[in-house]
Amino acid sequence: MNQIRLLLAEDDHNLGSLLQEYLMAKDFNVTLAKDGNQALDVFLDSEFDFCILDVMMPKKDGFSLAKEIRTKNPEIPILFLTAKSMQEDTIKGFEVGADDYMTKPFSMEELLLRIKAILKRTKKGEINPDAEVFSLGKFIFNSLQHELKTGDQIYKLTTKESDLLKLFCQNQNKTVSRSYALKLIWGDDSYFNARSMDVYITKLRKYLKSDASIQIMNLHGEGFKLVC
Amino acid sequence: MNQIRLLLAEDDHNLGSLLQEYLMAKDFNVTLAKDGNQALDVFLDSEFDFCILDVMMPKKDGFSLAKEIRTKNPEIPILFLTAKSMQEDTIKGFEVGADDYMTKPFSMEELLLRIKAILKRTKKGEINPDAEVFSLGKFIFNSLQHELKTGDQIYKLTTKESDLLKLFCQNQNKTVSRSYALKLIWGDDSYFNARSMDVYITKLRKYLKSDASIQIMNLHGEGFKLVC
DNA sequence: GGAGGTAGTTAAAAAGTGTTAAAGCACTTT
DNA sequence: AAAGTGCTTTAACACTTTTTAACTACCTCC
């Protein structure tokens, strides 16, 4: 099972590193940011699966941060940490699209349980992440053998075609950012690689076009999404 | 290769025997149980290599059954069949330690591919890196004596052929990079050696071509992989 | 609505691979 | 020493995969 990549934005250094250590011990990959601006920078720079944001932070508060994060990734689960049981905070938090919130002080164990609950809830279509065989509309894709089959025909995919399709299959109905795909498959993210990736997107679409129910959709400036 | 002994727990009699027949035709040894209790009895009575468990069954559901099976054998691969795409089921399934799951209705071909993928995955640890004798599909390869045997014939391999095949056998389903193979077998990595290696790849493929289930696959620019 | 970045597509260049046959080499046999 | 034998390397050509380039279309924001 892959590690969950978690962004923790918390200005209180003591609490921040305590949480980071605890969550890392629980096998999360935790990046700690010490204010809202730093958190946004880090978020835009790498890929995350989950955000824990303190509401009151210097430079940029948790809610504004959440809004900007949501424009980049409308799906990512967000859990807020509020300093006091402030009615206002709670309301505002859910308006921004919080998946949950916790009022300090809280037990780390409870936090962990809530994170797990949210992950369960939001992980809807996701299949076994280690799977090597995927079912895609009328296709069956065997990523080990690089074979994309349908009832009547079988395509032998090249390495790159297969790698890219596998990445999409592992992230069905989720946005895969360009830079993530490029780093993962092409090893790094540069302008020229980017155009190479576009060529492969075209190729995959050609293979898949006989089933209208699945498509690789572009989200302008954000990345691609395999919807099915 | 011996037959894989497979326990199939499925209360729907039609589906159950259909699957049983299909999998037996694919050379599995299939025992069909029609509820959870019967499945457990059978499991405790004999030896199995693989379990396919329906989640919803009378008397004992698939998850409870899986737990009891796991106490007896924590290693055995388990694949669940779920009636509908129930989020809960999936999560619970993976908590119990499912290796994969499939949602009804599914194609039998996909089921077969997934079973094979799991078997490949879980068998990996079995490979003894110091072994001198390898089983490769219908072949037996003795790297000490440079002999590649099948039921009806025996090939005497040359030193280089044998060294290269041994390297692949020690890294089944893993990518072996060109430069690694060249350094190990040819002593160094230069353009001309590289072409020599290609010639040997061709030779090995010729030996192995009578068994379609094993193949030496090229990963463009990365290396080769023996998949079986 | 136009500028500038982003994406879709095709074709050609470049890099890498598959295969066959002949040349080279070491080692035996005559 | 010449000829033969078996293995390995080199060379050559066809082919595949990946990248680069070029052109077109599109989306977003001022």
Instruction: Report the uncertain regions of chain A.
Output: none
Oligomer description: homodimer
Rounded to an integer in angstroms, the radius of gyration calculated over CA atoms of chain A is 20 Å
**Largest interface, by Cβ-Cβ below 8 angstroms: which chains and how many residues each?**
A-B, 19 and 25 residues
What letter string, H or E per element, gives the SSE order of chain A? EHEHEHEHEHEEEEHEHHEE
Strand content of chain A: 15-25%
The biggest sheet of chain A amounts to: 5 strands, parallel
Helix content of chain A: 40-55%
Structural class of chain A: alpha/beta
DSSP helical segment count of chain A: 8
The largest sheet of chain A has its strands arranged as 2-1-3-4-5
**What's the shape of chain A?**
elongated
Number of strands of chain A: 12
How far is the first residue's CA from the last residue's CA of chain A? 23 Å
Would you tell me the overall average pLDDT of chain A?
Answer: 84
Secondary structure blueprint with pairings:
Two copies of one chain form a homodimer.
Chain A: E1 4-9, H1 13-25, E2 28-33, H2 36-45, E3 50-54, H3 62-72, E4 78-82, H4 87-96, E5 100-103, H5 108-122, E6 133-136, E7 139-142, E8 147-149, E9 154-156, H6 159-170, E10 175-177, H7 178-186, H8 191-208, E11 215-219, E12 223-227
Parallel strand pairs in A: 1-2, 1-3, 3-4, 4-5
Antiparallel strand pairs in A: 6-7, 7-8, 8-9, 10-12, 11-12
The first copy, chain A, binds a DNA duplex (30 and 30 nucleotides) through α6 and α8.
